[in-house]
């Protein structure tokens, strides 16, 4: 299969945006609305800093109310499924699961194989037959690019994977909302998993993640 081939997603008449399996998994996942809590303790800094923080929180509260779908309401065709990928909490397995269901994903893979230079929003297929939108919604610069290319309005992604849920709300709008879901894992289990993962993860591109010296330590 040509790894650089571009293709459009199937039409809505041939492929439902939310399969029954997808809905069951979504209902089983924990709603991430709690991740958007605007309750905070203002730091004892200058009045200017506090005012700036309040404006930021007010803006976030507006985006949540306007751009994020209420998971207790029926799914709309205009909604986009957004999975909050919490590190070491099953996110990688979820990506593989949805890819095996032949869904189009938006993740860090989207800009690999030279697709970070694409000028237009498109779907491409990798050598394994998995399909991706050519944006990276796991990083701030990728979120801004996805917004400018109208990811929500184009409906090219079946599932958008993100690591910054609050920032991701910028992508959506009242007519094209994001419907968030996730899976949580006990924080101690996550920490232990990461401890052993970093001992062997020599494939990680981020400097400092792979650390074989951790094998000499105990927990």
Automatic annotation (TrEMBL):
Signal sequence interval, chain numbering: none
UniProt protein name: Sulfotransferase domain-containing protein
Organism: Ditylum brightwellii
């Amino acid at each position: 299969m040509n790894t650089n081939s571009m293709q459009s997603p199937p039409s809505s008449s041939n492929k439902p945006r939310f399969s029954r399996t997808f809905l069951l998994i979504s209902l089983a996942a924990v709603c991430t609305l709690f991740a958007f809590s605007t309750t905070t303790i203002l730091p004892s800094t200058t009045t200017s800093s506090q005012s700036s923080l309040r404006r930021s929180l007010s803006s976030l509260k507006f985006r949540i109310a306007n751009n994020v779908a209420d998971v207790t309401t029926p799914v709309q065709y205009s909604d986009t499924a957004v999975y909050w990928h919490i590190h070491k909490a099953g996110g990688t397995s979820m990506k593989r699961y949805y890819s095996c269901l032949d869904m189009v994903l938006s993740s860090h893979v989207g800009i690999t194989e030279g697709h970070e230079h694409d000028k237009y929003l498109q779907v491409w297929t990798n050598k394994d037959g998995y399909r991706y939108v050519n944006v990276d919604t796991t990083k701030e610069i990728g979120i801004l690019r996805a917004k400018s290319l109208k990811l929500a309005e184009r409906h090219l992604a079946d599932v958008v994977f993100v690591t910054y849920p609050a920032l991701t709300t910028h992508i959506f709008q009242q007519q094209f909302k994001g419907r968030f879901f996730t899976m949580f894992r006990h924080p101690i289990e996550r920490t232990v998993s990461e401890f052993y993962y970093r001992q062997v993860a020599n494939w990680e591109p981020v400097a400092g993640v792979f650390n074989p010296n951790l094998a000499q330590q105990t927990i």
